[in-house]
Design the sequence.
C-alpha cells in the first residue's frame, strides 16, 4: 500500500500526533514483548499506529479512529490508576493527554475539516 508515513504539509500538531502515535506503538510493542503485556493494550497501540498512517495520508476515518483510540488509552490509564495501580501511570496519563490534545487542537481540527477525504 503506497503512502507516506509523515506528511510535512500538515500542521505541526498533526505531525506531532502522528509521530507520537508511532512512538507509543513501538514502545508498547517493545515493552509488551519484553515484559509481557496485555494483548488488548498492544492491540490499541497497533491500531493507533495504523490510524497515524491514515492521518498522514489524510483519511478522515483514520483521524477519528485515532481520536477514539487516544481517548481509550487515557481512559485505560485512568482506570488502572483508580483500581489500585497507584500513581505509576502519571507519565502515561500525561502522554495520552498530550496525544488527545494534539489531535483535538483547533488547528488539527481545521485542517482535518478542509483537507481530509
Sequence:
Amino acid at each position: 500500500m503506497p503512502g507516506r508515513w509523515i506528511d510535512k504539509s500538515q500542521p505541526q500538531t498533526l505531525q506531532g500526533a502522528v509521530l507520537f502515535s508511532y512512538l507509543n506503538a513501538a514502545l508498547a510493542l517493545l515493552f509488551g514483548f519484553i515484559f509481557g503485556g496485555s494483548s488488548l493494550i498492544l492491540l490499541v497501540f497497533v491500531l493507533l499506529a495504523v490510524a497515524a498512517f491514515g492521518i498522514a495520508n489524510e483519511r478522515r476515518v483514520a483521524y477519528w479512529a485515532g481520536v477514539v483510540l487516544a481517548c481509550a488509552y487515557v481512559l485505560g490509564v485512568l482506570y488502572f490508576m483508580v483500581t489500585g495501580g497507584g500513581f505509576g501511570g502519571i507519565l502515561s496519563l500525561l502522554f495520552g493527554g498530550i496525544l488527545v490534545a494534539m489531535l483535538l487542537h483547533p488547528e488539527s481540527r481545521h485542517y482535518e475539516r478542509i483537507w481530509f477525504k
Residues 12-115 form one domain. The mean pLDDT is 89.
